[in-house]
Amino acid sequence: MTTPLPTAAAEGAGAPDTTEAPASPWKLALHRLRHQKAALVGAAIIAFFVLAALLAPVLTAISGTRPDTVDKKAVDPYLGGLPRGALGGISPQHWLGVEPLLGRDIFARLLYGAQISLLVAFSAALLITLIGTVLGITAGYFGGRTDALISRFMDVMMSFPSLIFMIALLSVARDVNRVLLLIGVMSLFSWPYIARVVRGQTLSLKHREYVEAARASGTRNSRILFGEILPNLTGTIIVYVTLAVPGLIGTEAALSFLGVGIRPPTPSWGQMISDAVLYYKVDPMFFILPSACLFLVVLAFTLVGDALRDALDPKGSRT
Amino acid sequence: MIGYLLRRLAAMAATLLVVCALTFAVFYLFPADPAVQFCGKDCSTERIELVRQQLGLADPLIVQFWHYVTGIFAGQTLGTGQYAVQCGFPCFGYSFQSAQPVWDLMMDRLPTSISLALGAAALWLLLGVGTGVVSALRRGTRLDRTLMVGTIGVAALPVYFTAMILLYLVVTVAGLLPYPRYIAFTEHPGQWISNLILPWITLALLNAAIYARMTRNSVIETMAEPYVRTARAKGLRERRVVGKHGLRPALTPVVTMLGMDLGGLLAGALITESLFSLPGIGKLFADSLNKSDQPVVMGVTLLASFFIVSSNLVVDLLYAWIDPRARLA
Fold first, then answer.
1. Using CB atoms within 10 A as the burial measure, which of A318, B115, B154, B271 is most buried?
2. Which residues are in the ABC transmembrane type-1 domain (chain B) (predicted)?
């Protein structure tokens, strides 16, 4: 019963041992995950950045810097405003150096940038999970006209050039709350991908015996949907959402990079990269630091999502 | 097949119309006033009102939309009297800022975007499919694991980073290549390649990883099919088993994805084009956005969705042609 399926054995750093039989699929998954070095590294990186973002006020109080304080003394006006000192102006006051021209502290800006990146990505992920699951499960379970309507809607949403349309929407939108706006616009174009998967899975689940049995015994539809079908979808949903997060983080960075995302003075990684691109030759540290953060977070989520997929879905994914 | 084709074409037209209507609504419900842009910053209120009348901006939204859609097929004259500008078929609007029809602006930039997309796609297919096949055939080995973790790492690299590192190392430090600018293939094929190779690599690295993993999964799955076992059992050489019976069906999903990615890339390579200052459609979009040149922004949005919708159609048609069962869907 615990004989590892071929894929699981191939992927796992250490093949699942057969000493004890884990009770539930969740325990089995957790068990497998613990043996995947890559997933652990990914989880550690995520934990690091989440902590850094949450503790941003504390950490900046310790370093004694604020993300938007201009420090003209840290830059050299005779060198076109480049940071004084080696490696982009790393000094006891500025642990990771300063921005050229304004001399704002990079350490503080990275921390507050992490807050924005993670807040936007997590909220959008939550939103697309909600919308995608509800619409996907509804379309799959009820079928017929409901399904046709929702599926058509998804098709149309997926024919939008999403990045371009997001930019267009963000550029004409009235300035209310940039963060909420970003979350809304990004979710608007991302939910169909989850909905499609959920719909497909629901289609295959709805003819299982236990669903038929529930229906035959007169259970209400909402109870069947959320009590019988949804619990069987959680694995798939978790995997898809974890793998959607790096995409969302990347999109937020791209939008801010293109100047339609988070507006200054609120820092965000994409915006920092966009400022730093001009200085990539003369002040490489300014460019490398936000890029490295972006890289690490995206990498970490992909590693964890990938490992989760192997752990929760032993057949491997078919996209 | 004809019936299927017609149905799909109708669906495509309907989708495009919906996209067009939504795009139109977004731009014309909360715009920076096109009349002000047309007339310039220091224009009196009466002049602006006059221009608005002449451009038809005072008409109800639905009338304006009708003019826009019919204009695409029949062309239209924008404005009246001394301000009249002729915008012939296919009229996607007129950019008053650059005094050119949007269509001409887009067509100027299209060759760059096509070159960028095709070159990058060729490169990432080579890298991605190659890696995926090797990984699948050596499944479970150290090589397979290294390749698969490696692809995740490469895919996580931000484009900005790849682009700038490449520029710095290859152009600034080593001086091997010129700073990229667009040279038409017809003008000088060698320079076309040497100028575009860095942008190609940048885009290819981003996508190759996804293709590698997909190819790997697909090949593993196909190689487990009974007909592969049959091919082996009848004594075919392994190369032929893999090449003819394994790879061909395994690559169908890859082709599907390629079609959709190419469609998205033709007008969607904004960041790569911006980083390398390549005058493609994406750059046109980004620049027009900065200048709030709305007719262009809207035109590019429509062109981009046209590319996406039509590449989906091409992929579906290819599928239906290969596999008749798909025609029923």
1. B271
2. 110-319
- Give me B313's structure tokens: 């159609």
* Pick from B19, B139, B156: CB nearest A299: B156
CB A150 within 8 A of CB A135: yes
| Contact (CB, 8 A) for B133 and B239 | no
Q: Report, in this order, helix, strand and coil percent for chain A, each rounded to 5.
A: 70, 0, 25
Q: Residue A4: is the preceding peptide bond cis (ω within 30°)?
A: no
B286/A156 touch (CB, cutoff 8 Å), yes or no: no
What does the domain layout of chain B look like in residue ranges? 32-91, 104-328
CB contact under 8 A, A163 and B268: yes
- Neighbouring residues of A49: CB distance < 8 A, sequence distance ≥ 6: A114, A118, A293, A296, A297, A300
Nearest-CA neighbor of A26 among A319, A303, A315, A313?
A313
Indicate left, alpha or beta for B293 from its phi (over 0: left) and psi (-120 to 50: alpha).
beta
Which residue in A156, A258, A319 is closest to B19 by CB distance? A156
Q: What is the token pair recorded at A67?
A: 């993300």
pLDDT tens figures, B210-260: 899 889 988 988 888 888 888 888 888 888 888 878 887 888 888 888 888
Between chain A and chain B, the number of residue pairs with CB atoms below 8 A apart is 115
* pTM as predicted: 0.84
Please judge whether B140 and A165 are an interchain contact, meaning their C-beta atoms are less than 8 angstroms apart: no
Question: Inter-chain contact B158–A164, Cβ cutoff 8 Å?
Answer: no
- Provide, as residue numbers in chain B, all residues whose Cβ is less than 8 Å from the Cβ of A165: 23, 301, 305
Half-sphere exposure of B73 (CA within 13 A, CB side): 4
**Per-residue pLDDT at A317:** 40
Q: A186-219: per-residue pLDDT in tens?
A: 999 899 989 999 998 898 888 888 888 988 898 8
The string of DSSP letters for B219-244 reads: HHHHHTSHHHHHHHHTT--HHHIIII
Q: Is the pLDDT of residue B85 over 80?
A: no
Question: Once rounded to an integer, what is the mean pLDDT over residues A54-64?
Answer: 85
**Would you state the structure tokens that stand for residue B293, as one six-digit string?**
């040149």
Residue B107: beta bridge partners? none
CB contact under 8 A, B15 and A294: no
Q: What is the DSSP string of A266-315?
A: S--HHHHHHHHGGGTTT-HHHHHHHHHHHHHHHHHHHHHHHHHHHHH-TT
Q: Which of A7, A155, A159 to mutate to test the interface with B (most CBs of B within 10 A)?
A: A159
CA dihedral A138, A144, A148, A151 (to 10 degrees): 30
Asked if A192 reaches chain B (Cβ–Cβ under 8 Å), the answer is no
Q: CATH homologous superfamily of domain B104-328?
A: MetI-like (1.10.3720.10)
**Cross-chain residue pair B168–A284, CB shorter than 8 Å:** yes
Give me B288's structure tokens.
């027009």
Gap between the Cα atoms of B167 and B197, Å rounded: 11
Residue B86: strand pairing partners: B77
